[in-house]
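Deviation from plan, reported transparently: EPZ complex.
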Amino acid sequence: MEYIVINGQNPLNGNVNISGAKNAAVAILPASIASGGVCEIDNLPQIEDVMSMISAMQSMGIICDFKDEHTLVVDARNITSHVLDEKLAKNMRASYYFMGALLGRYKQAEVPLPGGCDLGSRPIDYHLKGFAALGATCIQEHGVVKLYAEKLKGANIYLDCPSVGATINIMMAAVFAEGITLIENAAKEPHIVDTANFLNKLGAKIGGAGTATIRITGVPSLGGGEYTVLPDPIEAGTYMIAAAITGGDVTVENIIPKHMDSVTSKLKEMGCLVTEGDDWITVRGAKDLRSCEVKTAFYPGFPTDLQPQMATLLCKAQGTSTITENVFEQRFRYIGEIKRLGAQIKVEGRMAVTKGSCVFTGAEVSATDLRAGAALVIAGLCARGETVIGNVGHLDRGYERFEEKFRSLGADIKRIKRDD
Ligand code: EPZ
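Because the crystal trials were delayed, the predicted structure below was used instead.
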């Protein structure tokens, strides 16, 4: 078993390069199934979810070859199957994107229900309603979603909530649908724009991505093309919060500062000095962090994927703070582990309340999901003594070479193997 071992209280200082966005990469890769040519996708992060996605694609006969560490050449012209293997599907949540990609291109798909972080029920009813509106027959049996359509016709689809996955999945299914498809109350996250930009590069006709109404005009086919995945706002936010909690001075590079506005605003409210340029942000932590209220929301609100990391920072602030989780029904499972490190925080429904002024002390803890793992690393970085984090696989799903990156900023952090 692998563990991360951190000896805390080193302030983080220096520059860190942010990798390509996980949630854009795991959408753009299956979206390449729509291409009638060869695609070259650059700035892919070297993370487990990307490798799982590539294995799933290769299992369907899609040729995927790395040109260099972050650039993949994809050729889906001779795909041999529209059925996704159950084991591969369970590795991650994003396996649901094969539904829209295969339905769009081949008018059929057999995709097991997805895996991913345990954040509550996480249904996919909005996805299936969208596919049905386009003319697909959806059958769910034995944990597998089977989709079939004689043809797909454009439709007006209204999402009950701006679901990221449903927005992207329906967009992929609609690329070849006859006529116009409108997705209303669509999610606006940057990786939705990135996926739309990628498909448009191949010849799709998608307008309005990043707004609440996305308009897709069906086209007969798509060509090949090259695309560079956008930088990961969640990875960037994680390092910004780590700088704040260790009282350090860190510049996150190769980012789009606009995507970080909600995080920048909160760190400034807490007393951090935050400056930004064209493609970088510098965070200088404050000695006495001010308490504040954080409410997660769909983009451009405060991202739910930074909720655990921010809750950890708020534990260090002076006075009582609250963090409200408005996106997922159950995203406080990590609280038990953070309390083992000394956090004084309690959950009341969708809100966590922290007394603040916490002095974290190192202990043995275990990551319950990807972003919970990031929160434990952040707590360990400022804890007195040694913190040992188990279930490191969660972190490897979404953070490229994170212990190397943190070590380059001055953290005393390493990965060990233990028999147990
Ligand atoms: C995506 O998950 C991300 N995952 C999540 O990131 C992220 O937290 C989430 O969007 C919100 O930004 C990927 O992109 C692979 P949703 P997704 O559909 O698509 C409910 C990470 O750490 N809902 O926007 O599953 C759902 O239960 C991960 O990188 C339905 O009810 O999120 C949730 O409460 C964690 N029915 C809310 O909508 C549906 O059909 C938002 O979910 C779909 C969603």
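The mean pLDDT is 96. We consider this an acceptable substitute for the interim report.
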